[in-house]
Amino acid sequence: MKRLLLLFVASILFTACANKSITRYEALAPTFENKGCEETIAQVKKQQKDLYGEKSEFLYYFDLGVLYHYNGDYKESAKNFDKADKIYEDLYTRSVTNEAAAIITNDNIRPYRARPFEVLVLHELQILNYLAQKDIDGAMIEVNRAQKAMAALYQKDKDKTNDNGFLRYLIAIVYEMAGQPDDAAIAYYKTVKAYQENILNLPKEVRQFIVESLRRTEREDDINALGLNNAMETPKAQAVFDQGQEIIVLGYAGHGPILNELRLSGTYVNGGLLSLSYKDGKTGQMQTTTVDAMPVAGASNGETFHISFALPEAYSFNSKVHHFNVSVDGKSGIRPEKVMALDKELEMNLKDDFTATMTRTAIRVVLRTIAAQAAKKAMKSDNSLLNLFTSIGTDVAQMQMEKADLRIALFLPNSFQMTRIPVEPGSHEVTVAAESENGGKVKVFNYGKVNVKKGEKKFIFVQAVK
User: Fold this and answer.
1) Domain-located, residue 272
2) Which domain holds residue 269?
């Protein structure tokens, strides 16, 4: 009976290791949707231990940073992003203890280290926090941090694309604001390279500013090297550079993706092949994949294991807000362009990590299968009924251990959309309509009279994460 009790307790303990991500989303999403940022911030803080815990400390501060940014409290947002960034830096060096624990349980036992696009968004929003506070020195410090982060991601994942066109574009604007046109031109050049490597085409308006900047810094050769049209007209960019001031509208559209479980099952042949089947979440069709199966200690070469486990899979919402329509001094029809797509970023990240995560998880399941069989043998008695319960309890405990890591930031938009509008110094009436895909108005934001000083870049943030 003691053995059965131990098995039952173990099963409960391993069930408790389950990921809190779905619970976190279900608890906080209705508050965010219906009561707004302030109440959501209060709930995040109140339920920190239950919904996040110490293993998801990065996400706790990251989510607060996003919410404070939406709420216009840029100073508090910056403080929380700084804490999240510190946690990320501390966890960058892998913890052997946590990795060892993950081998026998699941990836949720490890501290959450952030996905590459979350790291880049952190720096994007942090730069915007400083620009909103008119702190150019703070923005420049964050630019240096962002560039180091991008370089580190490239060193860590050489075969993966972790550069980001929108972040490069923001860096160029900060250099302009700091009076460093040559550094801005270099950042614009890197913006093109980042978009070429990534999943979004170079936005047309962004292209204008890049070409105009390179022309003004006598870098026509760079224009040709990038494959841009040296003869293209750049009226909006010319007006901004000539007049010296502009209104920059940055919209956060739609609710960003979260993660669901993708169930896989198949055969692991030790030292041979791993062959798995799964249902594609988008098409509903069954898919198969086969990769080399690394040898597992405790199993003979060629030994076959039938396994089943779960991996994270992207889940995108049908967002109410698809795009924005900006009106300045009665002139409407100004449409910000999509400069970053979070759903595509997540899909790319999961695709990059799929084989490595699948192989690591499969090996973990095989190791536990071997351990479970050894445990059954060690606990075998003369009582057939007790043996049956022992065997069932061991299998249940083993199955309860494997949980997909579904942790992800909860409040990011589905896309960042941006436009730059040249204006004369003075007061300007600004209205932004958040619209559905078919053009219906979801919400209208009236900013009233927006004062723009000579030479100023005035940022307006539009939160329409619906």
Assistant:
1) yes
2) 2-114+244-464
Instruction: Tally helices (H) and strands (E) across the chain.
Output: 15, 12
Q: 145 or 5, which is more confident?
A: 145
Q: Residue 186 falls within a domain, yes or no? A: no
Report residue 382 as tokens: 């003369």
Mean predicted lDDT score pLDDT of the chain: 86
Task: Kindly report the pTM of this predicted structure.
Answer: 0.88
* Per-residue exposure over 244-272, b if at least 16 CB sit within 10 Å of its own CB, e if not: ebbbbbbbbbbbbbbbbbbebebbbbbeb
Please count the other Cβ atoms lying within 10 Å of the Cβ belonging to residue 424.
Answer: 11
Residue 101 has pLDDT above 70, yes or no: no
- Cβ-based neighbours of 287, under 8 Å, separated by 6 or more: 277, 278, 279, 280
Q: How far apart are CA 341 and CA 347, in angstroms?
A: 10
Within 92-135, residue ranges assigned H as helices are 96-104, 116-132
Flag whether 138 is in a domain. Answer: no
In angstroms, the CA 442 to CA 233 distance is 34
Identify whether the C-beta of residue 425 lies closer than 8 Å to the C-beta of residue 453. yes
- The tens digit of pLDDT for each residue in 265-306 reads 899 898 889 999 988 877 888 999 998 988 888 888 888 888
**Integer Cα distance of 373 and 461 in angstroms:** 58
Which CA distances in Å does 371 have to 10, 27, 113, 376, 381? Answer: 14, 37, 29, 9, 18
The β-bridge relationship of strands 323-328 and 426-435 is antiparallel
Measured at the alpha carbon of residue 41, what is the angle toward residues 39 and 45, in degrees to the nearest 5? 115
Q: Which two tokens stand for residue 159?
A: 């075969």
- Residue 185 falls inside a structural domain: no
Return the structure tokens found at 276.
């798995």
Q: How many CA atoms lie within 13 A of 227 on its CB side?
A: 5
Task: Report yes or no: 328 and 247 within 8 Å, Cβ to Cβ.
Answer: yes
- In contact, 148 and 167? CB cutoff 8 Å: no
Structural domain count of the chain: 1
The pLDDT of residue 153 is 82
pLDDT at position 107 is 67
The C-alpha atoms of residue 411 and residue 125 are separated, in whole angstroms, by 13
- Cβ(328)–Cβ(420) under 8 Å? no
CB 16 within 8 A of CB 50: no
